[in-house]
Amino acid sequence: MSIRSTLRGVVYRLLRHSDSEVTMTAHCLSGDGCGWMLDAISDLGAGGVAIIEHAAATGHGLFTRAVEDMACVVLSSRQEQDRRAQAHRMDHAARQRSVGGTESIEHTRAHGL
Asked: DSSP class of residue 8?
């Protein structure tokens, strides 16, 4: 790796993956061993209502909530994306040439040519 590529600042962005769905789960933290839990639900509003309904029915007021989705990291700069794609294509082409050359040599040796 060159010094230039090591020192260059690259900015990334964290995004929700377009194929993912946001889900919420919850657990009651009541000290009386309640054990109530909300299974994963994609309607966050309905999840909140379920927690409130449990609190109203039991008097329990402490819960954990976990909101989860699938995330992806992307480069902010289109120029950097293009540069990396080009470098990847060049590396791939070099590996293909290297593998092809090795197979030809081994094939020749195997047949005593």
From this structure: S
70 and 82 in a single domain? The answer is no
Q: What is the residue range of 24's domain?
A: 11-76
DSSP for 58-95, please give it.
H----EEEEEE--EEEEES-HHHHHHHHHHHHHHHHHH
Question: Strand 12-16 relative to strand 37-41: parallel, antiparallel, unpaired?
Answer: unpaired
CA-to-CA distance for 72 and 53, rounded, in angstroms? Answer: 35
Same domain, 83 and 113: yes
Q: Is residue 22 part of a domain?
A: yes
| pLDDT tens sequence across 52-104 | 999 999 999 999 999 999 999 888 777 777 888 888 888 888 888 887 655 54
**Is residue 3 in some structural domain?**
no
Residues 57 and 22 in one domain: yes
pTM for the model: 0.57
Q: Which two tokens stand for residue 6?
A: 């090591």
Residue 40: φ, ψ to 5°? -55, 130
